Amino acid sequence: MKSEILSRSTEEKVLPVTLADIERAAARIAGRVRRTPLVYSGTLSERTGQPVHLKLETRQPIGAFKLRGAMNAILSLDDAARTCGLITASTGNHGRAVAYAARELGVPATICMSSLVPPNKVEAIRALGAEIRVVGRSQDDAQVEAERLTESRGLTPIPPFDDANVVAGQGTIGLEIMEALPDLATVLVPLSGGGLAGGIAVAVKALKPGVRVVGISMERGAAMHAAIAAGKPVAIREEETLADSLGGGVGLSNHVTFTLCRDLLDDILLLTEDEIAEGIRHAARQEDMTVEGAGAVGIAAILADKIALSGPTAVIISGGNIDPTLHQRIVAEAAT
Ligand SMILES: *Cc1c(COP(=O)(O)O)cnc(C)c1O
């Protein structure tokens, strides 16, 4: 399925994040964030006839890549802003990342989240010592509360994706992949707010312009896809999905990731819930990995034959934080 919404123009683009920003981020976060393994997948390579490698962000200390962006953003603050304390609204992994980084750096953090966030994610953040506020039924409600506390308590916001330092941090994944796999042809990236896909696209395309970067979302609430189709960020209805970490909007006043994704992504694929479940199942049964819905969409897109690969491919396995009961149920089901 080729999206018709991603129009290309030949003019030079001035992008809000550069390769130099990402290289500085890599130096800044080195030693505090893990360089994750890139492992060859025999089953997916055999299936596609192309060498497929999995980038295991599940191996970060918080079980997801978001530590890269949060750590880079927090380390980029001046001392005054940092010691005031940090705040963010998050559907889970970003909150976990801010809580972890804050604890590592000895700074207080408050995390606002909606009541749709799964309990395992809430408890993980609480265990990292952050203050938690559960507000409303949507990411937007949580965001409003974070903005209120930013004003009333003078806390410093750490955004989940729409921030140049956060994007630069996520982009360090692209540097690591290019070092390990210089003949990279395609990257499959889970796509929500676009910090991950935007950062990786800047890095890999700066180092090798021909690399295809494909964003993958779920059909149920694909915010960046809707925004690019509309030509500007739009409000979307949030729906429950197995890829819960891909939920939420891109922000109506988005100033970094919308431009990056519109200008740099070569395609966006959308998946059904059954296809995502199949990705989770394959990861568990064939690759021996516990992967959450959002982390499994790259594998799912391959299994659903929604992408034709040519050349070495990297699939970003973005996170592994899934409710164990849900995971067990999905893995036990027969393939559809
Ligand atoms: C946040 C997240 C994503 C999407 O990242 P964006 O920068 O918002 O596009 C993908 N996978 C997991 C596991 C996440 O936590």
From TrEMBL:
Its domain of life reads Bacteria
Q: State the top-level EC class.
A: lyase
Query: Which cofactor is essential here?
Result: pyridoxal 5'-phosphate
Q: Say if the entry is tagged with keyword Lyase.
A: yes
Give yes or no: UniProt keyword Lyase: yes
Keywords for the protein's UniProt record, in alphabetical order: Lyase, Pyridoxal phosphate
> For this protein, what is any one GO molecular function term?
threonine deaminase activity
Pinpoint the Tryptophan synthase beta chain-like PALP domain residues. 32-317
Q: Which InterPro entries match?
A: Ectoine_EutB, Ser/Thr_Dehydratase, TrpB-like_PALP, TrpB-like_PALP_sf
EC number(s): the record gives 4.3.1.19
Q: Any idea what this protein is called? A: Threonine dehydratase
